[in-house]
Design a protein that fits this description.
With 343 residues, the chain is an alpha+beta fold. The chain has three domains: 8-152, no CATH class; 158-252, Response regulator (Rossmann fold, 3-Layer(aba) Sandwich), CATH 3.40.50.2300; 254-343, Immunoglobulin-like. The protein contains seven helices and 20 strands. The strands form six sheets. The protein has a four-stranded antiparallel beta sheet. Helix 4 packs across helix 7 (240-251). It is globular, with a radius of gyration of 22 Å. It starts with 7 loop residues before the first strand and ends in a 7-residue tail after the last strand. The model has no long low-confidence stretch (mean pLDDT 89).
Length: 343
């Protein structure tokens, strides 16, 4: 067991949703992550797409049961005193694999140890243990206070976006795609008739390309008058998977230290990406040709170490109006490809 105390905390986290090029949907999940020694514990698992059991979209009774389990007020759900720390974000089935750990009480302290990847009732520590993670000893008072605060109700993020365009029919498909990944999406031509209480439920507002600057200013005033601080997406790209990524990017209001991806820029020759911890990063380029046909190119898929990285881009993949999307487990960044001025 660890002889020294490790600071324990909790922080809001996100598993960003997506609509993939083949039409498959990746569901958006908001959850509470464990902050161990000042860093999200999930960041120590570089290639894991998972959420904690403390997800904001589970029924309140189940959420409370998960909290009480971590407080050792109920029996461990798995043999050997093991608890699920991170599970599948799509179905939460143990068969898909989960990170588990033994949680026990030592005096007034709580100890997490023997972390392992588990796909059945029993963990094989010889083959599937996480040898670089734990054990952690948490001071009882700090641990209990952090978890007990959740019993008042999990934090609910404003996971809704208001889509605005003069031709609202064009927004039907994007709105359906956003709802499919778990983001609430409403459509209107302007915000004048939307009650202030409802405006405050949105985390972002997205403008279609036909919305004039005057109309945008009117929408901004409506949100300001309602006391709503919302992120803005200007000039929605007419590519559904890209639009979903733009909205996910806008809805992510968390601090930089809670993100794996912190910077993305792109030119016709390279994309510059910065990550805060070792993680799998996927880069996808989207472009529209002169006939407004969509072209999708998978640019990069691999694990990057902390720091800045320059990744080469094929000029044909980002010709004309183009965007690059960077994804890691937890967040997504979108940038328009910068083209040099003529001459």
């Amino acid at each position: 067991m660890a002889a020294e105390y490790t600071p324990f905390g909790l922080a809001p986290a996100t598993r960003a949703g997506a609509v993939r090029a083949d039409g498959d949907v990746q569901v958006h999940r908001d959850f509470v992550d464990f902050v161990v020694d000042g860093r999200p514990l999930l960041f120590r698992l570089s290639d894991l797409d998972a959420v904690s059991p403390l997800a904001s979209d589970v029924p309140p009774a189940i959420f409370a049961a998960q909290v009480r389990g971590l407080l050792l007020e109920t029996e461990a759900p798995l043999p050997g005193g093991r608890y699920v720390i991170y599970g599948c974000p799509e179905c939460e089935d143990l068969g898909c694999g989960a990170v588990t750990a033994v949680i026990l009480r030592d005096g007034d302290d709580f100890v997490w140890r023997d972390f392992a990847w588990q796909t059945g009732d029993h963990a094989d520590l010889e083959r599937n243990s996480y040898r670089g993670i734990g054990p952690y000893r948490f001071a009882g008072a700090e641990y209990r206070a952090a978890l007990a605060a959740l019993l008042d109700g999990p934090a609910r993020s404003r996971r809704r976006v208001l889509l605005i365009d003069a031709r609202t029919a064009l927004l039907a498909r994007p709105a359906a795609a956003l709802r499919a990944v778990g983001i609430g999406a409403d459509i209107t031509q302007d915000a004048a008739a939307v009650p202030a209480d409802e405006l405050r439920t949105y985390g972002a507002v997205a403008f279609g390309r036909a919305v004039t600057e005057e109309a945008r200013d009117a929408v901004r005033r409506a949100f300001a008058d309602a006391g709503a601080d919302v992120a803005e997406v200007a000039g929605l790209a007419p590519i559904v998977p890209l639009l979903v990524a733009q909205v996910e990017h806008a809805l992510d209001r968390g601090p930089a230290e809670r993100r794996r991806l912190t910077r993305l820029t792109a030119t016709r020759t390279a994309a510059d990406v910065e990550v805060t911890s070792a993680c799998r990063v996927r880069l996808t380029a989207y472009r529209l040709d002169r006939l407004h046909r969509t072209h999708v190119h998978e640019v990069f898929d691999g694990v990057l170490e902390p720091g800045g990285h320059r990744l080469a881009l094929d000029a044909k993949a980002v010709k004309g109006e183009a965007f690059v999307v960077a994804r890691a487990s937890g967040n997504v960044l979108v940038t328009a490809v910068a083209h040099p001025e003529p001459g």
